[in-house]
Amino acid sequence: MTSAEATPVLQLSGIGKEFGAIRALHDVDMQVFPGEVVGLMGDNGAGKSTLVKIIAGNFRPSHGEIRFAGSAVHFNRPVDARTVGIEVVYQDLALADNLTAAANVFLGRELKRKFGPFALLDHKAMAARALELFGELRSETRPDDLVKQMSGGQRQAVAIARTRLSNARLVMMDEPTAAISVRQVEQVLSLIHRLKEQGVAVMLISHRMPDVFAVCDRVIVMRRGEKRADKAIQATSPEEVTALITGAKEAA
Predict the structure, then answer these.
(1) In the chain, domain spans
(2) What is the pLDDT of residues 31-64, one digit of tens each?
(3) What is the pairing mode between strands 118-121 and 112-115?
(4) Which pTM does this prediction carry?
(5) Alpha helix locations (H) across 167-207?
(6) CATH architecture under which domain 10-246 falls
(7) Exposure letters 71-81 (e unless 16+ CB within 10 A, then b)
């Protein structure tokens, strides 16, 4: 299905956000389609974080409309966004180092078995489901692996598997390849490809130009709270995107 035929999984219209006299976002329009990987780029202070927090339910927009899978939505808190199918993998990953991969996947969503008035954690069922999720992502991560012993790429696999547990339709990834080795970067980009193959929309927030051009279908550039460009990867270049980020080129 092409973008022209599909309903956007996410559509923003005229999104703005003010913090007192400070205008963080101004009339941002954006669409993301199922199975599409969109890069979100911009310098510090460009408005990327504010935009992500609005989509994730951390902030309410001052004005504008958010539609998800064709329906208007209003998020008062992050759980509202997660309920409709939006997940965020933050840069710190929010993993518990002392727990296993399976325990982290199910953290806060543990499976339990009831024995009369008692309920016990169903470790076997959680390990089995985690193994399935890692298999879908083609990750070598194992359910019983301790997170504190994992590479950066394996940690990303755990965080992404957690989003698949809830059948997320849009996954936003915040700087997933920062401060990891070249080999681990390839692992993370492969995980993004797996999500795309499964029809999940991905928004990649990154400063790493090679990663965006390796895995994204489109790139959106923010500058000073405004969207300055929204272009297919094939229709632009790292040089043009850099110029848009820095202001050497105003818009494209």
Answers:
(1) 10-246
(2) 999 999 999 999 999 999 999 999 999 999 999 9
(3) antiparallel
(4) 0.89
(5) 182-197
(6) 3-Layer(aba) Sandwich (3.40)
(7) eebebeeeeeb
